Amino acid sequence: MNQMNSLEIIKKAYIYLGEKDISNYFSLMSPNVEFYQTEELPWGGHYRGFDEIKVFFSKIFSLIDSSVEISHYIHAGEQIVAIGKTNGLAKLTGKSFSCNLAHIWTLKEEKIVRLEVYIDTDAMKTALTLA
């Protein structure tokens, strides 16, 4: 796959996510797409397929209101690493957060097959905790 196409797909994914346009977001993905985020967060874990990933999003959207800003992308074979920040508000605590992030996207045949989400977990846990 041409690297430009891969990057265009990932950039579209962020646009759709920012608009909370989940149906177009899923149109970029394989039906067996996998998401992973650390189990230390309330929405963390392994998710596979659109139904499970909808659960992932329902958990996130119920707990935080956030936006993602990507500062740069790194091509690594069939993977693209997106580096940036997620900024927003924890709905239950009212605390704002700004967490560094790295998203590792894997694409095959111009479809997203895996997303690994790594953020500053301690900063996010602080925002989610009443104290």
Which descriptors would you attach to this protein?
globular, 34% helix, alpha+beta, 4 helices, 131 residues, six-stranded mixed β-sheet, 46% strand
What would you say this structure looks like, in words?
With 131 residues, the protein is of the alpha+beta class. The protein has one domain: Nuclear Transport Factor 2, Chain: A, CATH 3.10.450. It is 34% helix and 46% strand. It has four helices and six strands. It has helices at 3-18, 22-27, 49-63, 121-128, and strands at residues 29-37, 45-48, 64-76, 79-90, 96-108, 111-119. It has a six-stranded mixed β-sheet. β5 (96-108) and β6 form a beta hairpin. It is globular. The N and C termini lie far apart (48 Å). 21% of the residues are buried. The model has no long low-confidence stretch (mean pLDDT 94).
In total, the number of strands is 6
Please, what is the average pLDDT? 94
Helix percentage range: 25-40%
For the record, the count of structural domains works out to: 1
Biggest sheet, in brief? 6 strands, mixed
CATH topology category name: Nuclear Transport Factor 2, Chain: A
Task: Give the strand content.
Answer: over 45%
Order of strands, widest sheet:
2-1-6-5-4-3
Low-pLDDT ranges: none
Radius of gyration: 14 Å
First-to-last CA distance: 48 Å
Structural class: alpha+beta
